[in-house]
Amino acid sequence: xxxxxxxxxxxxxxxxxxxxxxxxxxxxxxxxxxxxxxxxxxxxxxxxxxxxxxxxxxxxxxxxxxxxxxxxxxxxxxxxxxxxxxxxxxxxxxxxxxxxxxxxxxxxxx
Length: 110
Hints:
This protein is mainly α. About 55% of the residues lie in helices and about 10% in strands.
């Protein structure tokens, strides 16, 4: 899948979506692009430490190929990942659709 064929974050596999959300959350919380191991640690909380390095980096590379993440070398052996402008609007739209699907509308409560 390329950025040209991507119609929404909803077309991604669940793990790819979780990776994209994790990178975005870590960027927001730390104000810097996260390293692969920071992304793994973030997702280990959700997945119960079941994510192996191969699965993590293959999926991160797939998101880079799709144009949703940028990959940069930090110190010669460590990569960092950042969401692209291409990823921002689909992330927002997907989050809104999910919130609407379960009745979580901004500010209203049940």
